[in-house]
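From the shared-data thread, chain only:
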Amino acid sequence: MIPRRQLPVVLDRLKQFPAVALLGPRQTGKTTLAKYVARQGLSGRETVYLDLESAADRERLADAELYLAGHEDRLVIVDEVQRMPELFRSLRGLIDRGRSRGARAGRFLLLGSASIDLLKQSGETLAGRIACVELSPFDAMEVDGGDRDRLWIRGGFPDSFLADSDEASVVWRENFIRTYLERDIPQLGPRVPAETLRRFWIMLAHVQGGLLNAAQLARSLAVDGKTVARYLDLLVDLLLVRRLPPLHANVGKRLVKSPKVYVRDSGIVHALLGLDDYEAVLGHPAAGGSWEGFVLETLVGSAPERARASFYRTSAGAEIDLVLEMPGAGLWAVEIKRGLAPKLDRGFHRAREDLEPERSFVVYSGEDRYPRGEGVEAIGLREMASLLQGVQGR
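Structure, as tokens:
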């Protein structure tokens, strides 16, 4: 198993909370990670594993309170928990009764795709009793540095990244997209026509890293703006799309108010655009946006848990790709460039004058770290992510 960066986080939350929800899109490795915790005894308890896609396991939970009360001394792992959202009501009573007997933490590990109903149920029913941990596809800190370009092209879903060939990887991603549209999304969220949602997803891939223009998307899909907002909310809730908000700063400038949107996995971007290999990606206009989104996912995932990510842009053209509000460390400005000789635009320097960040970086395709002058450092992706993780550890 490729070690997952979130494993220590899951173990820490199990020591603190009665229930931990491990959320993420399908096929990111949630089950693999949970079974690893069970097999290695990392929770310090014996474990019971239930898969709610199994009719036999669903039958065991027909009277959930009775069944789970008999396993109070074990860690109960419930996979595909979104298939039984009513389970959360039973968990609340079990957790509260267990607390009165001293069983205060590490009782339930719940695995599921982040659906609207699941998040609502867990937030309302188990408030104060559950911690949510997001498991994304592999990022650049979880694979060998020499595999970075393969990770960018194929994306971080394990079966895609580890496929025997580029062709096999593409086939897996195309089937993943089809399955999500035709099977998973109808189960997890509001009913949306599969072909319309596919077109919407492809449109987002074409404008990867661009400002959201809901009116233009609505015209292209022949729907209204509210419908576009609903489609986008659905893909964001399912952790398939990131909506990066603009920074709200009192700088006396006219700021852009629309968010930027990214399809979160670069491999899915390339599959939606029909780009099968490295050369095809490099020859496509979306290559820059794809690289920006790939870097962004690694950096946001590596930043301190309480850090807030946004971007900065004024109507006059001052712009910073990623602004991180770091707890106890001020603003960090990050520009993302593909290539070995990154050139910084005048807009980046104007934006730095507006915000006066504590630290400024340009993340580029190389590995060397060196000063660019005027307080800006050029830095490779892995070293930048390591720097952010170091702040997290303070």
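The chain has two domains: 7-134, 145-392.
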